[in-house]
Amino acid sequence: MSTTAIVTRNVDWSDAATSEPYEAGWAETAVIFVRALKPPVGKPGRAHVEISPDGMRWVREGTSFELPAERDAIAFARVSQFGNWLRLACDFDEGSSLRVLVTLHLKS
51-67: per-residue pLDDT in tens? Predict the structure, then answer.
């Protein structure tokens, strides 16, 4: 089984931002894609995969990556053995922002 879920669409991320959480306990692997819909303002920022047992309390899974540095560029991360809930959290320098599309691609 596989599915694709859009968890953030056409949203300007700045400061500390997160995607919508997604319940994916059935999946064995996930690929998280982040596409820049506009050029970043300032430094693009850094993304961190977060996991949760209940969709409300979050911890960093350990996977981090730089967000895209130009319009239409894509960054991604692969994760497995993540439990039930996934989301992406990002940190930006003051004054920096990025308009994003974030998708989860899950496979059992």
Answer: 999 999 999 999 999 99
